[in-house]
Design goal:
Elements: H1 8-15, E1 22-26, H2 27-40, E2 48-52, H3 59-67, E3 71-74, H4 77-85, E4 93-96, H5 102-110, E5 114-117, H6 121-130, E6 136-140, E7 147-149, E8 152-155, H7 166-178, E9 183-187, H8 199-218, E10 224-226, H9 244-259, E11 268-271, H10 274-278, E12 282-293, E13 297-301, H11 310-314, E14 320-322, E15 332-337, E16 346-353, E17 361-364, E18 385-389, E19 395-399, H12 404-408
Parallel strand pairs: 1-18, 2-3, 2-11, 3-4, 4-5, 5-6, 6-9, 9-10, 10-11, 13-15
Antiparallel strand pairs: 1-12, 7-8, 12-13, 12-17, 14-17, 15-16, 18-19
Helix pairs in contact: 2-9, 5-6, 8-9
Length: 421
Amino acid sequence: MKTPYITLDQVKEIAKTYPTPFYLYDEKGIRENARKVYKAFSWNKGFKEYFAVKATPNPSILRILKEEGCGTDCSSLTELQMSDACGFHGHDIMFSSNDTPLEEYKVANELGAIINLDDFTNIQELKDTLGSFPETMSLRYNPGGYFRIANTIMDNPQDAKYGMTTAQLIEGYRILKEGGVKHFGMHAFLASNTVTNDYYPTLAKELFELAVKIKAETGVALDFINLSGGVGVPYKPDQKSNDIEAIGEGVHRVFDEVLVPHGLGDIRIFTEMGRFMLAPYGALITKVIHFKHTYKEYAGVDACAVNLMRPAMYGAYHHITVLGKENAPCDHTYDVTGSLCENNDKFAIDRALPELEKGDYLFIHDAGAHGFAMGYNYNGKLWSAELLLREDGSVKLIRRAETPKDYFATLDIDDCMKKYL
């Protein structure tokens, strides 16, 4: 059972000012979760969570996380600029990019960000671009093959476009060391949205053993290891949540087992958990506006895949609560659809819900990460507003809804469009 953090009466009141659809983020939940993460890794001196900006690129969200001690992980120029504008500076910013325009390396370096290189050829490319290496550098690792936990295949890094082979990584550290780099890091992302307490400890052990190998072969003692993201959330109500304290303790255990005996007990642990940090604390609120009775029962809402594309793109499950009918029996079956000219524009297929009526408000759960951020303008649909439910119960507009004027603003306008500007 998933419980919304807002009531029907509250949504009705909000909708008087901000019509649906809109995103609503829970400040209290975000802060409490961030504190749990830091508590779980408090055993590691220097631990830092670098929130993946791509998951929820909104300055109000970033500022909340900054107040809770987080940094940012950026993958583009605009994410670097947003981080800078929100007060993240120096090593509070991690720049993890791939297929990177050279100018973005320059901006990251000017901000003092930690640059995390994705590919072996980037090493010389970066030196040529900047003239010399920054004093701190990180390299991204890809072990190839399949990543397994207890004989269960979690993902297949060999098909991922990210990271370096073991041989490339070791040679990369040699080059960086000879080039004057003084502080070194390693980064890896080997599985996505795992709902198991064993992912981080399993990944950490592999990376810790590699850190020992790197020191033995190159003399480079890593300063930090970034476990990246991959710690998931239970999108379905019958899934068990990850226990971040158990995850932190699992990493602690292999840290003491592998790194400490080899004199690497000062390595700092970094994480990059966009989904775990934000997904449960953001929801898409939408209203039922239409019904269609053909070969199936369709409930049409005023949001569509441009507002939340994960179900259309991945077939991803997002739980839906009908506000005001939380305790009603789910004895009707619907496809919940938007209005795009695409048949995959469905938030749910054959979903059991209470009987719906026009005007019902739906709370689409776990949309706080990779939700609004993946929006687009197909069919001329406009981006929705983003709202923050503050700890005191008030609501703040943190991004206004897009207007037709915004949509037309980047066109080469001639007389035919001036009436709309």
